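FORM 7B: Structural annotation worksheet

SECTION A. Query
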Amino acid sequence: MDGSGLAGVEIIMTPKIASGLLDYEAVSDRIVMARLKGQSNNLTILSVYAPIRDAPDHLKDKFYADLQLTMNKIPRDRW
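SECTION B. Predicted structure
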């Protein structure tokens, strides 16, 4: 993360939901992944802040590559 303040993403949850937090990963300043304990299945939440259409191609390419790598971490039986 570059700390520039130009991008940023978070996941806000109540204390009750946060008590079921299994894992949290700040992939970049644009991608956050959280795993939550569910009653029958666990839940993966991705929160993303995509670059705008006019952003330089290298920023968009990096964002979508990071997003794909993050999605690849989610077990396929969870889709």
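SECTION C. Observations
The chain has two helices and three strands. Strands lie at 21-26, 31-36, 43-48.

SECTION D. Sign-off
Analyst initials: ____
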